[in-house]
Amino acid sequence: MAEHPDRRCCLGWDFSTQQVKVVAVDTKLDVIYEDSVHFDRDLPEFRTQGGVHIHKDRLTVTSPVLMWVKALDVILEKMKASGFDFSQVLALSGAGQQHGSVYWKVGAGLTLKNLSPESSLHQQLQMCFSISDCPVWMDSSTSAQCRQLEATLGGAQALCRLTGSRAYERFTGNQIAKIYQQNPEAYSQTERISLVSSFAASLFLGSYSPIDYSDGSGMNLLQIQDKVWSQACLGACAPHLEEKLGLPALPCSVLGAISSYYVQRYGFSPECKVVAFTGDNPASLAGMKLEEGDIAVSLGTSDTLFLWLREPTPALEGHIFCNPVDPRHYMALLCFKNGSLMREKIRDESASGSWSDFSKALRSTEMGNGGNLGFYFDVMEITPEMTGRHRFNIENQEVAAFPRDVEIRALIEGQFMAKRIHAESLGYQVMPKTKILATGGASHNTDILQVLADVFGASVYVTDTANSACVGSAYRAFHARRDKRTVSQ
Ligand code: 5FX
Questions:
Q1: DSSP β-ladder status, 295-299 and 303-309
Q2: Superfamily name and number for 340-462
Q3: How far does residue 328's CA lie from ligand 1's centre (Å)?
Q4: pTM higher than 0.85, yes or no?
Q5: Is the bond preceding 403 in cis, omega lying within 30 degrees of 0?
Q6: Contact 94, 258 (CB under 8 A)
Q7: CA of 407 to the centre of ligand 1 (A)
C-alpha cells in the first residue's frame, strides 16, 4: 500500500482506569488525531464508577475485562466513522494502568488467532476469560499475600532488592496469589495471565503479547537487574505461574504485525507493527521526554514523582522499575498521599483560604525557614506510613504550632524535601543538567514552584501531562520502528 509521506503516523493507546484513549502522532511528532471512550459515560451497561467496581469490603476493586474489550471496539468504530485513514499507521504501541491483571481461559489463544472481521472483538471474546472482574491498581485486599511473599523471600528488604519494591497490595504477584488461594478452579482454567498493557497489545497482535520489563516491574515477580522472573517469587505466589506469564520482553520491542482482523475490518496496512505496550507511568516518562537526571512531579490530590535513574538502590519506600526507553537504565516512582488536600487545608487555616495570601507567606519567609521544619500527614501517608502533624524548631525540638507564615513555608519545604530525600534514597542524584517538569493543580502557583526549584537546586518547567501516556506510546512506536528490536514469539 502506498504511503503518503505527510500522512504517515503512529498510534498511541492508553487503557487507563477511567477510559481508553488514542492519539495519532505524525512523523513530525505532532498530534494529528485524538479520541476516547469513557467507561462510566459511554459504556453504562457495565455500571462502573470511575471505571471500577468497589466491593463491599472497600478493599477489593475490580473492572470488567469485557468493558475494556468493548471500549476498543467502540473507539475503532468512532475512528472509522470520522474517516480516520488506518492505512497510514506505521506502528502502534500503548499504555495500561499498572498492576491490573487479565486471566485468559484455556483456548482463548486460539480464538485470538482466528478472529473473524465480520463481528466485534467483544462478541468473539465473550467466553475467553476465566476471571470476568479483573483486580486493578486500586485494590488493597491482599495484605495477607504480601506478608506471605515477604516472609518467603527473607523480608521486605530482600524482596525490594530483588524486585524493586517491597510487597504492595496492588502489585500483581500478590493479586495472583489471592486468586489462586480463593478461586483455584478459575486459576487452573487460566492459560495466560496478562497485565492490562500486555492484554491490550494481545488484542492488536491476535496472539499473546509478552509483558515488558518496565510494566513487569510492578508485579513483585521480576528480578529487575537480571530481567527474568524470580523463581522464589513465582513459587511463593502460585503454581505453574511461569508458563502462564510467558517470557518477559524488552520494552519497545516490535512484537509483530497487526492481526489481519484489523486489516480486513478497518483497513490497517498488513505492515503495521505492534510495539510492546507498557505501564502508564513508564509511558508518561517517555511522553514527557525525560532523560537521565530529570524528574517529573505531578502535584495533584496526591503527589507523584517519577525519575530517570542509572544506578538504583531499591528502598522500602517507593518503587524501582526497569526503564521503558533505555533497557540499561531504570526509573523510580514515588507516591505521596498528602498532596493538594493538605496544601488546601493549611491554606484555609493559615491563609484565610486565599492562594494569594499563601503565596505572600512564601515570599515573606526565607529559604530554610529559619530552621523550622514540618511534616503534615492529615491522612495516613504511604511514603512513609505515618500520620499526624510534626513540627520542629531550629533546636530540633518538637513544637505544637508555628506562626502562620512559618507554617506555610514549613509545609511546602517539608513536602519537597521529603521528595528529594526519598528520591536520593532510591539512588537519584541531582545533575547539572537536571530539569524538573511539574504538572497538576499546584504547578500553576509560581511561589510553590520556586520552593521546588530551591529544594532541588534545579530549573522547573510547567507542562501538561493529560496525554503523556498516549503520546509517549506513539513516540515509543516510532522509536521501536527505527530501532528494530524484535521479539520471537
Ligand atoms: C502506580 O504504581 C499506580 O498504581 C498508578 O499510578 C496506576 O498506574 C494508575 F493507573
A1: antiparallel
A2: ATPase, nucleotide binding domain (3.30.420.40)
A3: 23
A4: yes
A5: no
A6: no
A7: 31
Three-class SS of residue 202?
helix
- CATH 3.30.420.40 intervals, the chain: 5-282+468-481, 340-462
Question: Would you place residue 487 in the very low, low, confident or very high pLDDT band (cuts 50, 70, 90)?
Answer: low
CATH of domain 5-282+468-481: 3.30.420.40
Quote the cell numbers at residue 254. 516490535
Q: How far apart are CA 202 and CA 191, in angstroms?
A: 14
Task: Note the pLDDT tens digit of each residue in 86-130.
Answer: 999 999 999 999 999 999 999 999 999 999 999 999 999 999 999
Q: Which three cell numbers stand for residue 196?
A: 492490562
Nearest CA to ligand 1 atom 10: 97
Number of the ligand 1 atom closest to the C-alpha atom of 218: 2
State the cell numbers at 205: 497482535
Could you read off the pLDDT of 336-369 as tens digits, one per residue? 999 999 999 999 999 999 999 999 999 999 999 9
Residues with beta carbon inside 6 Å of ligand 1? Answer: 16-17, 97-99, 137, 170, 218, 279-281, 333
**Do the Cβ atoms of 271 and 234 come closer than 8 Å?**
no
Question: DSSP for 421-478?
Answer: HHHHHTT----TT-EEEEESGGGG-HHHHHHHHHHHTSEEEE---TTHHHHHHHHHHH
For residue 7, the 8-state DSSP code is: T
- Measure the CA–CA gap between 487 and 252, rounded to whole angstroms: 10
265 CA → ligand 1 middle, Å: 33
SS3 188: helix
Whole-angstrom Cα distance, residue 184 to residue 405?
A: 58
**CA 17, CA 119: separation in Å to the nearest integer?**
26
Checking DSSP bridges between strand 398-399 and strand 435-439, what pairing results, if any?
unpaired
Distance in angstroms (rounded) separating the CA atoms of residues 71 and 386: 39
Residue 377's φ and ψ, nearest 5 degrees, are -125, 80
